[in-house]
Design goal:
Blueprint: H1 19-70, E1 74-79, E2 84-91, E3 99-103, E4 112-117, E5 123-126, E6 136-142, E7 145-151, E8 158-160
Antiparallel strand pairs: 1-2, 1-5, 2-3, 4-6, 6-7, 7-8
């Protein structure tokens, strides 16, 4: 057949990719990754701040329950400068020889404890009936995302806003 060029591939020989085809595929992958990374980072920050806030709610609930259980006061102390909270009178469940301290700046939370205010104090005391000495708020942040934990003064119930 004149004027027609055909490339013949030997039987059993595999045809490879050209450099142009590989370059196009790599360019597409780079574009998709560039679009996905910021979304992944934002999702991770939202997850971390949410988990940190839920942990604070759980620890406030623990202190309240233990105060009722023992009919003795329990204090939760927040230290924004150190990025941690401590439930006084409790021990670490994993290492009973250590006090119960949660470091919010470390994994898995990697969040910042922005503020804690319970009637002007960075601590709340639950009496033997589980009633807090005051209501208040705790603010945590991861990346641009913030969550506020609110403790009701009358009931001692904590929730995330």
């Amino acid at each position: 057949m004149a004027g027609r060029s055909e490339r013949r591939v030997a039987p059993g020989a595999a045809r490879g990719f050209t450099l142009l085809e590989l370059s196009i595929v790599l360019a597409i992958l780079v574009i998709v990754a560039a679009m996905a990374l910021p979304r992944y980072g934002a999702a991770l920050a939202r997850y971390r701040v949410g988990e940190a806030a839920r942990r604070i709610v759980a620890d406030l609930g623990l202190a309240q329950a233990r105060a009722r259980e023992a009919s003795r006061s329990r204090t939760v102390v927040f230290d924004p400068a150190a990025g941690r909270l401590q439930v006084l009178g409790e021990t670490d469940p994993d290492q009973p020889s250590l006090p119960y301290i949660v470091r919010l700046g470390e994994a898995p939370y990697q969040a910042v404890l922005v503020s804690a205010d319970f009637g002007g104090d960075p601590q709340v005391v639950f009496n033997g009936y589980g009633v807090p000495d005051s209501g208040g708020t705790v603010v945590v942040q991861a990346g641009p995302y913030r969550k506020t934990v609110v403790l009701a003064a009358l009931t001692g119930k904590a929730g995330v806003q």
